[in-house]
Structure formats: C-alpha cells, structure tokens
Design goal:
Layout (H helix, E strand, L loop, with lengths): L18 E7 L2 E2 L3 E3 L11 H4 L3 E3 L2 E5 L5 E4 L1 H14 L7 H14 L12 E10 L12 E10 L10 E5 L17 H16 L4 E5 L7 E4 L3 E6 L2 E4 L9 H12 L3 E4 L12 E6 L3 E10 L4 E4 L8 H14 L10 E4 L1
Parallel strand pairs: 9-10, 9-16, 13-14
Antiparallel strand pairs: 1-2, 1-3, 1-8, 4-7, 5-6, 5-7, 6-18, 7-8, 10-11, 12-13, 12-15, 15-16, 16-17
Helix pairs in contact: 2-3, 5-6
The protein binds pyridoxal-5'-phosphate.
C-alpha cells in the first residue's frame, strides 16, 4: 500500500497508476481499456470542446475495518449518467459496463484506497465526452468514457461541523426547463461566478433559489438541501435540481428511523422554521448548515442556534458513513465489494 499522509489529504487531483477508457465508435461501445496516460488525444472539433457535450459522475470507494473495499450505490451513478446522456443527446453507457469500469479502476489502483482509520476515501470520477468532430451544432457520432480515481482526505478534518451559506440572487445556475437536473459541466461553468462571490464574502458555498420566481430554495452549488422540523425531513422539489444520490439515501435512512419525508417546494422564509438543515452530497455526506444569509435582501436565517450540528443530522451522517465503511449491515443493498 502507498504511504501517504492520508488524514491530511485535501480534495485535489493526485496521480494514481491507471485510468480506464471505453470508446464509442460506429454506433457501439468497445472493450474496456486500461491506460496509464493522463492525457486525452482529441480532435480540435470535438463536440465536448465547442458545444458542451460533456458529463460526469462522482462516487467513492471506502476501505473497511475488514480491509475490504466498498463502493457506494454505483448502479445509481450509472443510471444518472444515462439520464444525463438522454438530456444532452450522448450515447448511453449500459449499467453493466459502467460498473465493470468502476470496479476495474478501483482494483487497479487498490494501493491508493486509504486505510479505514484515516477517515479518507478514494474519489472516483467517471467522465463522458463527445469526441467526434462537428462544426454545425449536432450531437457527436463518437464518444469517450473515462474513469480516473484520486485519494481524498476526510471532509471534516476537525470533526463534523456547521458552515455558513449564502443565497446568491445575482446569478442563476440553471433554468427551470434547462439542464439543472443533469450532471453536465455546463451547469458548473454557469455557477463559477456565484461560487466565487460566495467565497469572496466568506461563505462556505452559494445557494440558489428557483430561477423563475426567486422564491423557493433550489440547492447549493454542488449539494442538495434538506431541512428538519417536527420529526420531518423536507427537501425541495424542483425541475432544476440535480437528483443527489446522497439525498435519496438520507431520505431512505430517515424513513427507516421513523422520520417523515416530504419532497416539496420550500419558500425561502420557511428557512427560519427549521430546527436543523444540511447540504448533502458525495463529498461531505452532510455539511450541516449554521445559517443561510440572503445578503441582497438583508436577511439572515440562523439554523444552528448553538453553532453545532443537530441530533438528526448527526444521526443520519453517522448511519450513512457506517454503511459506507461496512461498520453496519447493508440492508438496502447499496454496497458493491471490490473482489
Ligand atoms: C453531484 C451533485 C450533487 C450531489 O449528488 P450526489 O450524488 O449526492 O453526490 C448535488 N448537486 C449538484 C449540482 C451536483 O452536481
């Protein structure tokens, strides 16, 4: 095994041994290839470079106490990538090929999967791009699917903690009938200015309201929102939110714990009524929210009154992490063990 300072790794790119690739040509996907090259030779008229035919996924592999490597809900990432492909007219990769590629790249880079005790994990980044040359605006006829991995440190280095967020009204991430519900790079390009503004103002991340009425909570930059009150888990319903697999998993765990789940519009003012709230996604699982400021409207919704993560967020966080690391039984069949 590699000897890295596992607990102090950040969230950055670190070279590993191999990536895996599958090419789509002549109307079909080819065989899975192993590659040690970090670059992609590509035609300058590739559609990913001009017309944004690009999508990605993000998931993690965890080393358990038993030394086994577990991947969390890989079939869900395969399905979401297929949905994205239908959204921006790219060739869909079948679930079995997606899973085979993920397991292979993790196995090949096994020495980079951090030890159990470190709280670190192996981040897996699948990427699908249009590589066929096209000058007119049309979908490509050739595609490349690549998966690389990189070890990442524990998200909460100083322990599970709350963060301040800010609503940005000046920029929209996605339109109501746009591509917000697909995991495409274009949404991220559209979010860079808002993200920078949030950071410049000293916040952990930006929050978006629905772009049509600017009334309802949509999501954070790269994480879904949920609020807790009256033993209920409430998460926004919107056509421009990316369906988070972490959020879907937390909804299931909440139900298992006897907490009611509601998926509905959340008006901004309702923020003042939540007992707890969190931003959820693969990176942090849950980032508990200290407060959400609406600076342009001179409002501040303080959620964690004592500045600490609440009991429901903490319970959900511990439960999901325990399943991911294999400390608790996988009753919902969410885990794939890499053999
Ligand atoms: C990836 C992503 C999320 C989180 O999804 P998970 O599947 O939980 O990692 C949330 N919002 C956006 C915009 C994303 O791109």
């Amino acid at each position: 095994m590699e000897t890295l300072d596992w607990s102090n790794l950040g969230f950055g790119y670190r070279k590993t041994d191999y990536n895996v690739r599958i090419y789509y040509r002549n109307g079909k996907w080819g065989e899975l290839e192993t590659c040690s090259e970090e670059t992609i030779p590509m035609h300058m008229a590739a559609t990913c470079l001009h017309y944004g035919q690009e999508c990605f996924e993000g998931l993690k592999a965890f080393r358990g106490k038993d030394g086994k490597i577990r991947i969390f809900r890989v079939d869900e990432n395969a399905k979401r990538m297929q949905s994205t492909c239908r959204g921006i007219l790219m060739a869909e990769l079948p679930t079995e090929k997606f899973q085979e590629a993920i397991c292979k790249v993790v196995k090949l880079n096994e020495r980079f999967v951090p030890p159990y005790e470190s709280g670190a994990s192996l981040y897996i980044r699948p990427l699908l791009i249009g590589t066929g040359a096209q000058v007119g605006v049309h979908p490509a006829n050739e595609y490349l699917f690549i998966v690389f991995v990189t070890p990442v440190g524990p998200y909460f280095k100083g322990g599970f903690a709350t963060n301040p967020y800010v609503i940005i009204r000046e920029y929209d991430r996605a339109a109501p009938l746009g591509t917000g519900c697909f995991k495409v790079g274009g949404n991220y390009a559209a979010s860079l200015r808002a993200n920078q503004k949030a950071h410049d103002l000293g916040y952990s991340c930006e929050f978006y309201l629905d772009s049509k009425e600017k009334k309802y909570i949509d999501e954070a930059g790269a994480a879904n929102f949920f609020g807790i009150k009256n033993n209920t888990y409430i998460t926004p319903k919107s056509t421009s939110i990316l369906p988070s697999i972490t959020n879907k998993s937390l909804m299931q765990l909440a139900k298992d714990m006897g907490i009611a789940v509601e998926c509905r519009q959340i008006p901004e003012e309702e923020l003042s009524t939540f007992e707890e709230a969190g931003a959820c996604g693969t990176a942090a699982v849950i980032s508990p929210i200290e407060r959400i400021d609406d600076v342009e409207n001179n409002k501040s919704y303080v959620i964690a009154k004592d500045g600490k993560p609440g009991p429901v967020c903490t319970k959900l966080y511990n439960k999901l992490r325990a399943i991911q690391y294999g400390d608790e039984p996988d009753v919902h069949n969410w885990i794939t063990i890499v053999e």
